[in-house]
Design goal:
19 helices, 463 residues
């Protein structure tokens, strides 16, 4: 008998007490000191902490969800619009980022995992396990920030992955805002980086550069940015960034990140130790492999997400269609953390593939994972809706000047023949109609008063 999970909906809210009860114990204790230490709200520290905990694990643990073996990591972008604020996201993950960065000076780390040491290239050595962001001065010979976009190429991505002990690299915050620099990258580099992030999310093999072999690798990003940067990079009507964006989970920070957090707090020390321990499992030990048992729950959750997307504006669908895969990853992360907690409590060895958790523990963790995933996807969707609204207020695209009215007239004929239709239903009646062309034609018809759109998203002919 599989345990029931709460229903999903982008407007179905859980109280923060429910969310707090679902967090790993060490992270739950940290949220109680979130404002005192980081200047951030507890829910913000909870979301950032989950992202760092998953990234620190890398590929030391893999779960087969029925499609591929995948790590628990996910891409995470935190929005903070406070002027002069510190890098709160990186401060929360200091426990593993700082340790991983120091490994660059320790010889023999690559050999522990059975890899050959990375050959010398024209680029300097990169931190093991973590990688600089698009604007990290220390990784590219301290070049000026405005030149950082030219230095991010396939060779740097290959170095990042090959130097990681378990072929899991993470792009972290550097000297500048990575999202701000995204539009400055060459178009080919934008597509390549976005493709690697999507393939990594799907658990596919990666080719960091065209001539390199396909590797079972992982590439993640943990970035802090501002709303204006995200809007310029992906919500600008003049580019097509919204059509096929990378799988980025967005969270809007509440509070003002402190530039000088107070780390001399027992809860912070315990949290940093947990992150460091999670990362050290990547060094030399074989990956722990698990199998997702709750395929029915994952499938039900996926259907609920897709049904809820029908009430979300169509332009946001590319940002949401990958999100059902977050539930197995969240369950994977909670299960891995549970094994680590048990090993510490009994002062035993680190978790090994033969460990088996009780059934009631698995049922409890899949329920908690469903609540945490629902909450994070709700935050993600509402952040996207606000970005979309602000982009339209600041500069909505001009009403298209259709010199050729074939498409608008065709839409009117289709509505007369088939009656009210949703945007996606309308698109099925046309051969090779892109979402961009459809939306431009509909904006033209709406501006001319030829059609109206109901609250449930259906298009009908004007009376």
């Amino acid at each position: 008998m599989t345990p029931p999970i709460p229903p999903f909906g982008f407007d179905f809210w859980h109280s923060y007490d429910d969310i707090l009860d679902c967090l790993p114990p060490v992270l739950r204790a940290l949220t109680a000191k979130s404002e005192e230490v980081f200047g951030l709200a507890p829910e913000t520290v909870a979301a950032c902490g989950l992202a760092h905990l998953a990234a620190a694990a890398g590929q030391s643990t893999m779960m087969d969800d029925g499609t591929a073996f995948k790590s628990p990591g996910f891409n995470f972008v935190a929005i903070s619009d406070q002027m002069g604020s510190g890098d709160g996201l990186s401060c929360i993950g200091r426990g593993w980022i700082e340790y991983a960065s120091r490994l660059r000076t320790m010889p023999g780390v690559a050999q522990k995992s059975g890899q050959k040491p990375a050959s010398r290239t024209r680029r300097p050595a990169l931190p093991t396990g973590t990688a600089p962001s698009l604007a990290d001065e220390q990784a590219v010979d301290v070049q000026p920030v405005e030149q950082m976009s030219a230095t991010v190429d396939v060779h740097l991505l290959k170095d990042m992955i090959m130097r990681s002990p378990d072929r899991a690299a993470t792009l972290i915050q550097g000297a500048g805002d990575p999202i701000e620099e995204w539009p400055r990258l060459k178009p080919d580099m934008q597509r390549h980086l976005s493709l690697l992030l999507r393939l990594s999310w799907q658990g596919r093999h990666l080719k960091p550069c065209p001539r390199s072999p396909a590797l079972k690798a992982s590439l993640l990003c943990l970035w802090q940015t501002q709303s204006a940067s995200l809007k310029r990079a992906f919500f600008n009507p003049q580019n097509r960034g919204l059509d096929n964006p990378p799988p980025l989970l967005i969270h809007r920070m509440n509070g003002t990140p402190r530039r000088f957090p107070n780390n001399d707090v027992p809860e912070v020390t315990a949290w940093q130790h947990r992150l460091k321990l999670m990362f050290t499992l990547r060094l030399g030990a074989p990956a722990r492999e698990m199998t997702l048992e709750y395929h029915g729950i994952a499938e039900t959750f996926s259907k609920q997400v897709l049904e809820a997307m029908q009430f979300v504006p169509d332009p946001l669908h590319p940002w949401l269609d990958w999100t059902p895969g977050l539930l197995p990853r969240m369950y994977h992360l909670l299960l891995h953390d549970w094994h680590l907690t048990q090993a510490q409590a009994h002062q035993g060895p680190t978790p090994c593939p033969s460990d088996k958790e009780p059934r009631h523990v698995r049922e409890e963790l899949i329920y908690k994972a469903a609540i945490l995933t629902t909450w994070m996807l709700q935050e993600h969707c509402h952040a996207l809706e606000k970005l979309m609204e602000e982009s339209w207020v600041e500069g909505p695209p001009d009403t298209p000047d259709f010199t050729d009215l074939e498409l608008p007239w065709g839409i009117l004929d289709c509505l007369r023949e088939h009656g009210p239709l949703l945007r996606r239903q309308l698109q099925r009646h046309f051969h090779r109609m892109t979402a961009r062309d459809r939306d431009e034609a509909l904006r033209y018809l709406l501006s001319q008063g030829e059609i109206t759109e109901t609250q449930d998203g259906k298009l009908i002919l004007a009376a």
